[in-house]
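User: Could you check the structure of this?
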Amino acid sequence: STSLPEYFVVPSSLADQDLKLFSYSFIGRRMPLWSWNHPNGSALVRMANIKDVLQQRRIDQRICNAITRSHPLRSDVYKSDLDKCLPNIQEIQAAHIKLKQLCVNEPFDETEEKWLSSLENTHWLEYIR
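Assistant: Sure, the predicted structure tokens are below.
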């Protein structure tokens, strides 16, 4: 994948040939990427969607098992589909444009309540939270 760094962390229980084989199943060949580690052993792993629906469960299970084996306490993997709970890049860009218009282009002769309502309607604060 041209969008992944040259080096990245993967669970040691995943063999190189598995990683190469699995990489073709991910959109953009974006293998799971270990992004953050907590002192208690928890980790944040980002993963692109798997293209092949028939292989999705098998690949997902193999990777989640490898991640579980890598956790010091063998804790189960908690998965969250961020596409469903986070805004996409177009929504963030639109919110930023609305914020700029509100702060730069709009004269501040509105009441504070109306301005705060307009700020809320940009969704910018919600997205950056």
